[in-house]
Amino acid sequence: MTRTLALLLAAATLPAVPVVAQPAPAASAQTYAPLFAAEVDRAKRDVDASIRAGVNVPVPKDPGGGFTHEQHKRNYRTIFEGGQLYRLTGERRYLDHVRDLLLAYADLYPGLGPHPAAANQVPGRLFWQSLNDSVFLVNAVQGYGAIRDALAPADRKRIDDNVIRPMARFLSDGSPEVIGRIHNHATWACAGVGLAGYLLGDRDLVDKALKGLDKSGKTGFLRQLDLLFSPDGYYAEGPYYQRYALQPFVVFAAAIDANEPERRIFEYRDGIVLKAVRTAIDVTHDGFFLPLNDAMRDKSLRTEELYHAVAIAYGATKDPAFLSIAGWQGHTVLTPAGETVATELAAGKQKPWPFASRLLGDGPDGKQGALVLLRSKADASGPLLVAKNSVQGMGHGHFDRLNWLYYDETGAVVTDYGAARFLNVEAKRGGRYLPENDSWASATVAHNTLVVDEQSHFAGDWKAGEKVPTRQLAAALDGPTRYSIAEIAGAYKDVTFRRALLMLEVDGLANPLILDILRGTGGGRHRYDLPLHFSGHIIDSDIAFDRKLAERPVLGKANGYQHLWVDGEGTKAGKARLTWMQGSRFYSYHMAPPAGTRFIVTESGANDPEFNLRREPALIQRVDGAADATFVSLLEPHGEYDASAETTVASSARVTALEHRREGDAALVLITLIDGSRIAVVVADDVAAAAKHSVTVDGRALAWTGPVGRFDLARTGAKK
Amino acid sequence: MTRTLALLLAAATLPAVPVVAQPAPAASAQTYAPLFAAEVDRAKRDVDASIRAGVNVPVPKDPGGGFTHEQHKRNYRTIFEGGQLYRLTGERRYLDHVRDLLLAYADLYPGLGPHPAAANQVPGRLFWQSLNDSVFLVNAVQGYGAIRDALAPADRKRIDDNVIRPMARFLSDGSPEVIGRIHNHATWACAGVGLAGYLLGDRDLVDKALKGLDKSGKTGFLRQLDLLFSPDGYYAEGPYYQRYALQPFVVFAAAIDANEPERRIFEYRDGIVLKAVRTAIDVTHDGFFLPLNDAMRDKSLRTEELYHAVAIAYGATKDPAFLSIAGWQGHTVLTPAGETVATELAAGKQKPWPFASRLLGDGPDGKQGALVLLRSKADASGPLLVAKNSVQGMGHGHFDRLNWLYYDETGAVVTDYGAARFLNVEAKRGGRYLPENDSWASATVAHNTLVVDEQSHFAGDWKAGEKVPTRQLAAALDGPTRYSIAEIAGAYKDVTFRRALLMLEVDGLANPLILDILRGTGGGRHRYDLPLHFSGHIIDSDIAFDRKLAERPVLGKANGYQHLWVDGEGTKAGKARLTWMQGSRFYSYHMAPPAGTRFIVTESGANDPEFNLRREPALIQRVDGAADATFVSLLEPHGEYDASAETTVASSARVTALEHRREGDAALVLITLIDGSRIAVVVADDVAAAAKHSVTVDGRALAWTGPVGRFDLARTGAKK
To answer: What is the pTM of this model?
Structure first.
């Protein structure tokens, strides 16, 4: 048994020594590297406070954020940390406290029925949803494992039989509707059940965790590894849940590797576990996860899941780029893997994380669409264009095919609302997803993509969306003209739309330009709306808005439109512009939409009886009664405002004209800058890489190969 | 002449050596302390770029933020920095470039008339307002002084006669309506004129700067020192302008001290210049100036003015607390005073700035009211209650007598809108104050103080307000019960109001409670509105609001009310509560207002045709038809939300009851906490420090001396 638990706690590359039998002397704490020493100190403060407060294992009552919820969370952390502290220090009080806590659960747990605050999730025993029970078990096993061999046999038996095993049974045979899914809740359940199985030496539990309750392999952990990540390690539900899902994947994988090294779990499916960790780091900006689908905007790499993931991935790869992430995190885990990270970081072995453009294929085969990240700098907080051409993402997916976001040094510029939820805030419906998560946050109009006839994609039915992939048609990840081209057919019954998003680096401009060419084609006549949700304060516009100054109507009745206040509506012939300011930078959004387009300035927050929504601005381009429509838009970041130095430069746009026309089977866009120079961008309908194309501009023939041609035309001549 | 210019540049305590005649060798740059070395490097980058770009002295045309405006600003910085670099390095190119710039101004300046973009300010020659011309001269003299002795006599004469002297003449005899005021614009003019006088050896200019154009002493720098600061060094226009005004005060004072040490200028009026610097640092939170009156919220101690002020004040005092401010600033000035700061900071001599509660008397005699700062920690970003019981503050003053603000570790909690302005953003009316600065930002309803009959104080006439001081009646700056009591009579014709603001530290609560007792007494029947402007997202309330869900009316017609959207209106018997969340903390605002009070939730932003306003929430307590009214409110910061750890504690309030009644000539407030303990706070009408009072609570006699009594009553007993 000693071997099992030692391995369980060890990083994959560490020797499987029976650490519990030979606890380190207390004085050794002084030799820890700073990052690990800080964790040990923090854990000691927490656990010592818990010891002083005494064992508190309340009868479950409250939903998320309520007292019993938070107390059981504190307890599993105390069990985890207390176990590690005992392993590290050998101090008896840690062993005693963890034992006493677990014995209190041994009294409580067997008598519990479904949680009284259960809502629309599967109820747990300790928590309102069984998911949290799984998290409890994953943590508790790791803490218990560190003290188990040192316990009196009777105590060990009581905890085994009244806590660990019944929890594992509840989460496996007792909850087939959870563990049998291909879903992150099931991964947590598998990890808890599997860890418990290794600890108890219970092969049945381990096999059910790995291969499903029927051990057929149609469900279970390995099947989840097959189906939940794309071959690029992208998790179908999006970055927020990728983060969340990661912890049980890496912790259970490390345990499998330690207990059954012959499985070579880190090489499974071409190294999918480690790919998933790398991709999780890539789907961030400035350390914060891109808030696609249901997502809290304040989640960063500074979370428990990523401390585990980085420590385990570093142990498995020794890639020094993980160390720089650990340095940014400023935290690690209390396990031997965390200690290694801290030691090698202190030795200066870290290298910068190589942030770069990526095309993350989505779906189990990687061919159901993609999440495309275009970056112009190898920098955590530099320009980042995100094209969300991915799959639906199950129940947490939003109706936002071909959505885009833009980030740069000022933060999120073209934004995603994320989820309508106040995590763990009891007064906000127990911290659960709010009604506005369905009525607003997941609706198409809450995103930066095409809305047809004021309906959400797939009529707002995610199960319908699950059946329809997105087509990623082409992409270029490097050079001065990075781009993504994708198409979705089936989001609307009779409208297909295609979008090219391009990141153009231009000599003489400090920031890239973002060009967006969106073309909808369909039968019949439709209302086409293209919203842009942005962050910042409106500076000015050349659109003459009819402002709603003293009464503010609502834009529509349903599908998210009921949540939009109208601030103004206007038209403009030719190119139109809206400029806003965020932080130290200005952003001009230039539009060359179809003739007759109206521009509507809105703000979220209408029909929100409980003040659940944030109030954020958007600009909607609207065309009525069209069969086809092409929206050409250009985002231009410019200028600098410096509050300290009281200087402002380039507060007006450098782009003076934006023109668009069809040239044969291609869209030609001409961008004119203030110095008179022009950039011609041509996007062919034929996306074949080898196809040759040409157009004529100002009597000059421009020829290119592949879907995108770009020609920088000086004032008096042309250069490629 | 060498002596004059050397002294001009030297900190007060440095020897007056002729540094220009013996420039330091270039290699010495490597020996600078880091803070100064960084400034030298930055200045070299700037000036070398200016040298490469060549001399560019355009004909003045644009308003603030426009090209010619920014170019002339760049030029005076280049002159200042280039001069210092020549002094430090002796490198010829710096001398040549500064000379060439000044010679270009010698060609341009004499032919200039009033600036073409002049608006409602006195026009300058180079800039749209003469203020900027003064700033130009203050900088240019300091740069020119560093090269002047090294110039060929003909060049020196041209610059003296065609730039420095005519500028000084324009800003003195040529602008009596500016330099003759008691106002920060006049201080800048005096500083420019006086520095020019010392440099040119022109006693007439110096005397006019010191004592006014008629040399009577009724105006001029010394009179400004008498009248613009209170004896505590508080500047009547408020913190934002205190910062702005500081630079000419300290720079000119340092020059006076160097050139006429016998004036003992740093001892003038009990050391008013240094008091002003200390007070400027005190009127900040987390390094940012409190945005009282017309103020940009993004102004911090990291500004040029404060780099000069800190360097000069450190030179004059050697107080090591200034060094910690310099460390926070991360910048210093290129002068010898800045070099000393950098050297001694590098030597580790700094001490923390002693942030503490302060009562800053306002008005020239310090008896026209006060700004009261109550702090519970000696910490730049800890809890801070601000009671604005000060004078009107001239044309930049807002109509907000007895206003209050609250800050803590999450930032501004109870807020002030500051100014409606986008500094230097040309599209926003040239960067000037916007119409909404008058119609909204300065209106009483935009503040957290009493509005009677929807009118601003003094009917919105600042000149009327100038005549009426505020009465600071009592204050306690230390201990667990800090407070301020003040009264204003005359803001409304027939209503006087008094406000007690108390910061209560309570055993067992992590954050202080803020208690507010505001009592209006008047003849006739009135509408009393008490707004609270706060920062954060509404979590919940026990008020049943009639929500304006699908159409949003405007609250009123004028005096700022036209800018308020109504989100909902409701009533509640007994105590009412609104809870919001900001960052990691929750805030519950408990109210025990007069019977019949309605509660209105609003947001700024209505009737704002140019999108000039930020949209910020407020809660208004409204009583109609009352002669007298007492509003008792309690702000309770509580709980903690941790996004990384996914934990939330104490998201609901600890305060369960708030009661208020008159007991004889005192207001008795009873605060009940969730554990059943109570706090009794009694505020007597008689504010005499020696007056003895008593009340009876639950049959127990509570006696105290002075205006405020506080009694912490345990569940089953009482303790003082």
So the answer is: 0.91
